[in-house]
Specification:
- The chain is α+β, with helices and mostly antiparallel strands.
- The protein contains 15 helices and 20 strands.
- It folds into two domains: 144 residues, OB fold (Dihydrolipoamide Acetyltransferase, E2P) (Beta Barrel), CATH 2.40.50; 256 residues, Bira Bifunctional Protein, Domain 2 (BirA Bifunctional Protein, domain 2), CATH 3.30.930.10.
- It has an eight-stranded mixed beta sheet with strand order 8-12-13-20-19-18-17-16, with helices on both faces.
- The protein starts with 7 loop residues before the first helix and ends in a 20-residue tail after the last helix.
């Protein structure tokens, strides 16, 4: 970067960097700095009567400071919070050379610089828990100026809140907005709670290919790439379902995977082309069993985040206390749209869509039109966790036919706060029926449906070896985190959401 591209403060910081090196102080030392405690541990462990914590070794970023001649206070931030540090010139410069304090600390260090401190904990006359520094070491010089978040009487001023800047520079967002750091800690806790739940049931975590020759397992438009060594086109996976079910064929009773999936589709506050999904498949189960399993899992997740199964989501109080309501899709349409679609032909359903002002086109079959009516008239009513069950065959090509109505399937989707959260089936394990379903998807693709599934003949071959009765479930992790943290935008629960490239010099 040319100096002409830098502002005055950035030029000053580079000059400070140069001077520090001329003084023999390396601003980016190679040796490790031993940390033995965090800010939150200090607050938890300090006992003012005992005067414990005599050997505090902590490191972090300078976030503010007050210099008062030969002494100073500054605020140090580590990964768990902030704490005040007291620095006295004669303590960190015990000999005659006072350069470290008079020149380096007072003049060359800036807000955002990272330092290591060795000292002891005490309570100031103002009653604030503080670290008295006996040793200070520069660990990293910051060459850019942090946005300073000012707080007074519970109010925040000059906040780093512009969404585009926050998403592009998530590293800055994490430094200056503690609530963002906490949100991603909760995201990790959610995933680990789910993982522990599956492991306790004896299911195995596995990994399946991201690059796939056939993009199967969902109705979606894929990203396409090219494998140079094999000289073949490949697709970024839209789902990992078909590979996981191959493992059930292979003899595992239960497998799961937290996977990155990719769909070359739209972006909005609830959709991102790259997203995280949990999929789990359990042999000898059906979708009724899976409903109870999911309820128990989500109860545990809610307790891990809120210590309760009831919490605020937007303007609504949501209860994840089992059991959840179960409502067949056609009954939901009857309840909320006021029409009974039972037994209707495709042409009749098309007329209903016209009457209800539901936009449809000639490429859509009966199943997709039913789904469109449901989306227009029903979804927004489903605030409390609700299982919508028994979907049309056309929109569920990997699902076992309903045991009482072969026009429907044994499938449920879980809706919360008007949004889909999970999707589950009694998995189709009849290879003949599966091939016919794939062929019907091919006919839909020929009619112009670019989201229709590809035919995966190897998966059909796997089913021909025999797959036991199986129930499978997929849940969107990003959306689950949004729900559990009361976050309105998916970009806020992704460390690095997709954006148009930024032009940097």
């Amino acid at each position: 970067m040319e100096n002409s591209d830098l502002n005055e403060q950035e030029l000053n910081r580079r000059e400070s960097l140069k001077i520090m090196r001329e003084l023999g102080i390396e601003p980016y030392p190679a040796e490790a700095f031993e940390v033995n405690i965090s800010t939150s541990q200090i607050r938890e462990q300090y006992d003012s009567e005992k005067g414990n914590l005599k050997d505090v070794r902590i490191a972090g970023r300078i976030m503010s400071r007050r210099i008062m001649g030969a002494a100073a206070f500054f605020e140090l931030q580590d990964h768990q919070g902030r704490i005040q540090v007291y620095v006295k010139r004669d303590d960190i410069c015990p000999g005659e050379d006072k350069t470290l304090y008079n020149t380096v600390f007072k003049k060359l260090l800036d807000i955002g610089d990272i330092v290591g401190i060795i000292g002891f904990a005490f309570i100031t006359q103002a009653g604030e828990l503080t670290i008295h520094a006996k040793y200070l070491k520069v660990l990293s010089k910051s060459l850019r100026v942090l946005p300073i978040i000012k707080e007074k009487e519970g109010q925040t001023y000059d906040s780093f809140s512009d969404p585009e800047l926050r998403y592009r520079m998530r590293y800055v967002d994490l430094i200056v907005n503690p609530r963002v750091r906490e949100l991603f800690i909760k995201r990790s806790r959610i995933i680990n709670t789910m993982r522990n739940f599956f492991n306790e049931h004896g299911y195995i975590e596995v990994e399946t290919p991201i690059l796939q020759p056939i993009p199967g397992g969902a109705n979606a438009r894929p990203f396409i790439t090219h494998h140079n060594a094999l000289d073949i086109p490949l697709y970024l996976r839209i789902a990992n379902e078909l590979y996981l079910k191959r493992l059930i064929v292979g003899g595992y009773d239960g497998v799961y995977e937290f996977s990155k999936d990719f769909r070359n589709e739209g972006m909005d506050r609830t959709h991102n082309p790259e997203f995280t999904v949990l999929e789990i498949y359990v042999a000898y189960k059906d979708y009724f069993w899976m409903m109870e399993f999911v309820e128990k899992m989500l109860e545990q997740v809610a307790l891990a985040i809120h210590n309760d199964t009831t919490f605020m989501l937007g303007e609504n109080i949501i209860s994840f206390k089992a059991p959840f309501r179960r409502l067949p899709m056609l009954d939901a349409i009857k309840e909320y749209a006021g029409v009974d679609l039972e037994g209707m032909e495709e042409s009749e359903i098309r007329q209903v869509c016209k009457k209800l002002n539901v936009p449809v086109n000639e490429k859509m079959g009966a199943g997709k039109m039913i789904d469109a009516i449901f989306g227009e008239y029903c979804e927004h009513h489903l605030v409390q966790p609700t299982y919508i069950t028994d979907y049309p065959v056309e929109t569920s090509p990997l699902t076992k036919r309903h045991r009482q109505n072969p026009a429907l399937t044994e499938r449920f989707e879980l809706f919360v706060n008007g949004k889909e959260l999970a999707n589950a089936y009694s998995e189709l394990n009849d290879p003949v029926d599966q091939l016919e379903r794939f062929q019907e998807q091919l006919r839909l693709k020929e009619k112009g449906d670019d989201e229709a599934m590809f035919i995966d003949m190897d998966f059909v071959r796997a089913l021909e070896y025999g797959m036991p009765p199986t129930s499978g479930m997929g849940i969107g992790i990003d959306r689950l985190v949004m729900f559990m943290t009361n976050t309105a935008s998916i970009q806020d629960v992704l460390f690095f959401p997709q954006m148009r490239p930024e032009k940097l010099q």
